[in-house]
Structures are given as C-alpha cells and as structure tokens.
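Notebook B, p. 112. Complex prediction, attempt 2.
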Amino acid sequence: MMQLQNKKIVYIAMLSAGATVVAILERFIPMPIPFLKLGLANIFIIIALFIHPLAALTVIIIKIFFSSIIFGGIFQPITIMQLVGGVSGLIGMYLIIKLNIRCSLLGISIIGAFIHNIAMLLTASLIAHITDIMKLYSIFAVFSLISGGIIGIATIYLVKSMYKRNINYNL
Amino acid sequence: MRKKDLRIFLKPSFGDFIIVIFIIATIFLYSAKMKGTDNFLVIVEINGKIKYTLHTTVDTIISSNGYKGPFSFEIKDKKVKMKNSTCPLHICVKQGWIKNSNEMIICIPNRIKISFSGSDYDAITK
C-alpha cells in the first residue's frame, strides 16, 4: 500500500484544490459550443498521475464533487457523465504510460481528452436514451484534439519549470 | 511509478504523432460516411420516444413536458431552437438555432433530443 507521507498528502490536496478552482473558473470562458470546456483541470490530473494513479483519482473525485456543488448540485446527470468520463480518461492515460508507447505528455493529454469526451457522449446517450448520439462524434473528436493538445503543451511547460526550480515530489 | 524520470515525457515524440494521426483518420472516415440530408421534418424525442414530428416549413412555438419539467422550442425559417427548459445549466438553450441535419439539440436532465430528418437521396441517382 502506498505510504502516505505528510508531504504527499499536502501535495495531492493542493493539486485537488487547483483542479477544482480551475474547473469552476473555466466554465466562464466563452466557447463556440456551450457544453465544451477546455479541461484545464487535466493539467493537475496528469501531474497527480505520476505520483500514483490513485492520487489522480482523488484529484478527479474532489474536482467533480466540488465543481458540481457550485453548478447545480451533485445529483444531476452531468455529474455521472463527468465521473465516467474522468475515470475512463484516467484509465486510458494510465494504460498509455504503462504500455511504454513512447508518448510525451502531449499524447497522454490528447488520449485522455479523447476518451473522456467519448465516454461522456456514451453516458449521455444512455441517460437520455439517445440512440444516434454518435452524429456528434466529429465535433467532439476535433475539440478533444485541440483541447488535449493545448493542455498537454501547458503541462509540459509546467513540469519543465518545476524541474528548473527543483520541485520534485516523486515526479 | 517509483522514481520515474519524467524528462522522457517532456519531448514530443513518435507516439504522439501516431495518436494524432489515428484520431484524425477516424474523423475523416466518420464524416465520409455521413451524407447530407434534406431537412423536411423536425423530430423531438423525449426519453427515446418520438413525441413530435413537425414540418420545418411551419413556424411554431411548442411547449411541452420533458422528463424533469416543462420546456419549449421554436421552429422558424427552417431552423429550430430550444426556447427554455427546466435544466440547471441551460446548455440546450445556449446552443441556439440549428440548421443542418448533422446537428442536434440535447437536454440531458430532461432527456430531450431535437433533430432534423428527411429523405436522404444519392446525388448520383437523383
């Protein structure tokens, strides 16, 4: 079992707080299509993933919990969609790293965004009984490429600057 | 994940390229499969069952009940939009007008789907 040192707990808590704040604020950024969001919280989730996948899962759950409370409550269908999407994206990113596919953080982020969006589409179709929701695939796929790319590049820059300042909590 | 040196992950490399190409390929394959269709009818489904089938040529405003509460939509100039709906985020209302048969307006809490339908015919055999 993972040995939880105090430093790690504080670090994971800070990542969760950052993910939550960023997730709440990014909803106010105007987007061409209303339900699409940039997914800035994934920066923190990817960093948490390199500590331990369960750390990333903690960040995801805390982020979804608190951002749902602010926006309409946790017993809405969108909370389930976010949970399924977030966990699927996490599993996808973890597999990519474990399988040693020689990806950089850019590819990991893109795959995470892609699987997250597709999983959200599928859960939405199950909840609302929409059979031909895959008509929206192209829009979601293009957007996941773009947003995953932006977040991946941002994460790369963030981790590079963390290395320069010798911040090294098991990264 | 113990003591893994993150530096190898910081340079874009071969796997990224494969992933991006793969996703772009799926997008092209998928959009090649879809033909454009004419918009004769507006179809409103609630919880999977078709509730309204209306002509796009007739401008109307209709109020009805979704899974969670009342909602209303409007047809005008062969376009459709959701006027209001009892969902917490009103994403469906913010989407505005839709014109193409490839678009749809969905409201997840109310389980509503508004889309177009019509006959699709091959341009060649027409």
